Inverse folding.
């Protein structure tokens, strides 16, 4: 019969950040008996969101509302999508600044070229 491994006690954390840092450097198998874990369902769990007040030029808001109407979605939802897409793009841009072969393969070569290089490669009219 297999002898059970003695589990370590999970420390008490003062913040989510502290807990996140802890789990990034520790193996959960030292603290949790995963073979006894069960699937949990949280049907009433809502994603945490915060309300903000954002001042936009009236013309920009009108354009956003027009785009949202064409897509048949609320304009606030469309704004969240636009913001999320931009955050992903910015993160990718930051990663691109650091050499990463796998990431570079996903970007079209013309996008990797600087403006001067693209200008030299484009046919003159």
């Amino acid at each position: 019969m297999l002898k059970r491994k003695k589990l370590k006690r999970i420390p008490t954390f003062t913040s989510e950040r502290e807990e996140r840092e802890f789990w990034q450097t520790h193996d959960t198998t030292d603290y949790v008996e995963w073979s006894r874990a069960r699937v949990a369902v949280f049907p009433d769990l809502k994603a945490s969101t915060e309300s903000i007040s954002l001042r936009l030029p009236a013309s920009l808001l009108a354009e956003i509302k027009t785009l949202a109407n064409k897509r048949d979605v609320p304009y606030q939802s469309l704004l969240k999508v636009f913001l999320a897409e931009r955050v992903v793009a910015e993160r990718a841009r930051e990663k691109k600044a650091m050499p990463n072969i796998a990431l570079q393969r996903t970007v079209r070569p013309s996008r990797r070229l600087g403006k001067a290089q693209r200008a030299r490669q484009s046919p003159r009219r």
